[in-house]
Amino acid sequence: MERDPTSPCAASYALSAQLAFHYLEMDGISAKYNQDRNLQVGNVVLKRIRSHWGGYQQLDSWGYQIPLNYRSYQRSPLRIVPTVTLKEALNGSLKPGDINNRIVLIGVTAQSSHDYLSTPYETTQELHQKIPGVIAQAQMVSQILSAVEDGRPILSTWPIVGEVLWVWGWAGLGGMLVWYGRSHEVSAQGTLLYLGLAGGSALGVLSILCFGLLIHGQWVPLVPSALALIITSSAGLIHTVSQIQQHQKPSTSRND
């Protein structure tokens, strides 16, 4: 963001980014902007979020923002790092080896601080599990370090053209399933059974593909694609079954 020249905060990067960059510089890995004006750390390019990004539209994309790929342990984003209370630090429980060659974040985790952020993770008590701001900073630092040192993917999306083609492709598949069933089945019951099995299989394949791409850092439309597949196949099924029933009606004749 454009900083106010009179602001006492002269930081060029967020706290999490500065911590990660400082840690990586000790290994000779520096951050710079490439020819596409994207921030590159080592060989990893941190592509920024735009106002239209995947399932998000009209985002406030000021500054240089990237999506957060949360870590979790036992389905909780809270337990990703060892934590030490102030009391434990004061009574000597904290050993030098516990912090040697580590990034250490000091913050408040009390609910009274009101520094809590919602995450996509669910708990039995609430829909979105909340974590203290200091843990969120640890998540951000961990993401950058893991992306650079371990090759852990950072979430990204396809261009809008690619997403449109993806959705229309599944819509076309629904139409092809109907066309194939129409050309090989002669009864409404047979067509209905075939399309039920084929459509269910197609939805299963779509879900597996979307999940596999997400694991590798690609967020592609699942719900729009599934709806397009269901709508086109259902519309074609209704039309096909109606035609089959009309052809199977007994014909009558009258002799004068």
Share of residues in helices: 40-55%
Spatial separation of the terminal alpha carbons:
90 Å
Number of helices: 7
Strand content: 5-15%
Biggest sheet record:
3 strands, antiparallel
Tell me the series of helices and strands, N- to C-terminal. HEEEHHEEHEHHEH
Shape descriptor reads elongated
- Main-sheet strand order equals 1-2-3
Radius of gyration: 27 Å
Structural class: mainly alpha
**On the 0-100 scale, what is the average pLDDT?**
84
Unreliable stretches covering 5 or more consecutive residues: none
Number of strands: 7
Could you provide a short overview of the structure?
The protein is mainly alpha-helical and 256 residues long. The chain has helices spanning 15-25, 86-90, 96-99, 133-149, 160-184, 188-215, 223-247; strands at 31-33, 39-41, 44-46, 116-118, 130-132, 156-157, 218-219.
Task: Tell me what the structure shows.
Helix content is 45%, strand content 7%. It starts with 14 loop residues before the first helix and ends in a 9-residue tail after the last helix. The strands form 3 sheets. It has a 3-stranded antiparallel sheet, with no helix packed on it. Strands 4-5 form a two-stranded antiparallel sheet. The model has no long low-confidence stretch (mean pLDDT 84). The chain is elongated and about 90 Å long. The chain has 256 residues and is mainly α. Strand 2 (39-41) and strand 3 form a beta hairpin. The chain contains 7 helices and 7 strands; from the N terminus they run αβββααββαβααβα.
